[in-house]
Design brief:
alpha+beta; Pnp Oxidase, Chain A; 9-stranded antiparallel β-sheet; 9 strands; 31% helix; binds flavin mononucleotide
Length: 212
């Protein structure tokens, strides 16, 4: 780990996390933490574990990239026809987990899942490089595929079909996790870590300290 990252870790571990000092809105606080991680040059600070559950109650987890945070929640993009897409169709709840080792920080987010609007997916898709657009449209994500050559042929077919702008395939787009529980975890010495849990109730968000 670089000298700068060690210093970053020292800086954050020394900083006690008090529920009262956190923003009443966890989305604001998470955005602040992500901003600090990006400013601290943590690599792929927006990579997060996404956990889903299938129709039989069986969990699965994988990494996706957090692409947007707004007052409604946390957005990532994927194939609606993937394993995770099928899980979310059967059971529209998810959990997210981010971990930034150099800062001794973890964030856990849970909530209901909704699809973002087609216009929002179109806008994000349009912002991607052509290669990513072709890959997203061509790959039957989570399905068995015979060979890499077969995959490349699928991409070439989409490429040939759209010499100009590539339209977004309807099977690809964004999901938003609308949070009802958020936990901020700040590592401290002697395993006496700080944990602040936000819970959404009828009166809005409340905060509590959890034992480490
Ligand atoms: C760092 C990293 C970032 C990733 N980002 C995404 C992403 O934003 N969207 C996505 O669909 N898959 C992403 N993946 C691939 C997923 O982990 C996974 O392989 C894929 O979505 C298929 O998952 P599923 O079969 O459970 O649906 C990423 C993988 C890694 C390692």
């Amino acid at each position: 780990m670089s000298h700068e990252l060690w210093r970053l870790g020292e800086q954050y571990a020394g900083q006690l996390l008090e529920p009262e000092a956190c923003d009443p809105d966890p989305i604001v606080e998470v955005r602040r933490w992500l901003g600090a991680a990006i400013a601290g040059q943590i690599k792929q600070a927006n990579a997060m574990t996404l956990a889903t559950v299938d129709g039989r109650g069986r969990p699965a987890a994988r990494i996706v990239l957090l692409k947007d945070i707004d007052a409604r929640g946390f957005t990532f993009f994927t194939s609606y026809d993937s394993r995770k897409g099928h899980d979310l169709a059967a059971h529209p709840y998810a959990a997210l987990c981010l971990w930034w080792e150099p800062m001794h920080r973890q964030i856990r987010i849970e909530g209901r899942i909704e699809r973002v609007t087609a216009a929002e997916s179109d806008a994000y898709f349009a912002s991607r490089p052509r290669g990513s657009q072709l890959g997203a449209n061509a790959s039957p994500q989570s399905q068995p595929i015979g060979s890499r050559a077969e995959l490349e042929a699928l991409v070439a077919a989409v490429d040939a079909a759209h010499p100009g702008e590539v339209p977004r395939a309807a099977t690809w787009g964004g999901y938003r996790v609308v949070p009802d529980a958020v936990e901020l975890w700040q590592g401290q010495t002697s395993r006496l870590h700080d944990r602040v849990q936000y819970t959404l109730g009828p009166a809005g968000w409340s905060r509590a300290r959890l034992a480490p």
